[in-house]
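Following up on my earlier message about S-adenosyl-L-homocysteine. Here are the inputs again, as you asked, copied directly from the submission form:
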Amino acid sequence: MLDNVKIVLVGTSHSGNIGSAARAMKVMGLSQLVLVEPQCELDEQAFALASGAGDIIENAVIVSSLEEALSDCTLVVGSSARSRTLEWPMLEPRECGEKVALESSHSKVALMFGRERTGLTNDELQKCHYHVCIPANPEYSSLNLAMAVQTISYEVRIAHLDREKQKYSNDVETEYPRHKELELFYQHLEKVMIETQFISKEQPGQVMNKLRRLFSRARPEAQELNILRGVLTSVEKHHSLKS
Ligand code: SAH
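Thanks, got it. Here's what our run produced:
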């Protein structure tokens, strides 16, 4: 269901881009717009560029943190024009459309887009399961924000229409943990690693980032995450008995 797909715009500074993004969404059948700390008003310019998609702006949810935007999503994809210092699982726009169409048939999905000037921060990018990059001209690869929303939303629509055609297909529906459950797991993991002195609190290094990347790649299912939490709890108990 396309209603399960959230378009999350982070720190947008031009209201016109929000309007154009709303229009881009509506023509592709998407309706859920979330604005994280927008740096502009939802003014006339936004509504003018939205054209007939003003309802998407009116219904947009404005939040002050990314966590709020992502917490109920089982899949988070960040759209980025370039790969950063930390390599991350990448999707082609087409694959992205397919994954989003499949997952949104049973749970909420976020497609995240960055600021006009600076894109998404590394911190924000590390909250994603995947990054998607539109393979544009390498010498001039940065699309206007709303056009990036258009391109990715189009792929989601195409994949959604394909799935509608093949309704009889029997995908196994896997239950994945929600973003907030994953974050709790990471907190637990870090705590145990500090308690057992695998890493030091003062100088944690890159271990947590690398482990986040590992788990993003592996995508533990809800049940698997429960097992991992159980392992951590048993380590904690054992450790406190010994010390
Ligand atoms: N100068 C910024 C570009 C920001 S463009 C940077 O280098 O990151 C605003 C947003 O549009 C980006 O954060 C990204 O979400 C999206 N975007 C622009 N070009 C893109 C591309 N080629 N592939 C994927 N996303 C893109």
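One observation from looking it over: The pocket of S-adenosyl-L-homocysteine is lined by residues 79-82, 113-114, 116-120, 133-134, 136, 141-143, 145, 148 (CB under 6 Å). Hope that helps, and feel free to reply on this thread.
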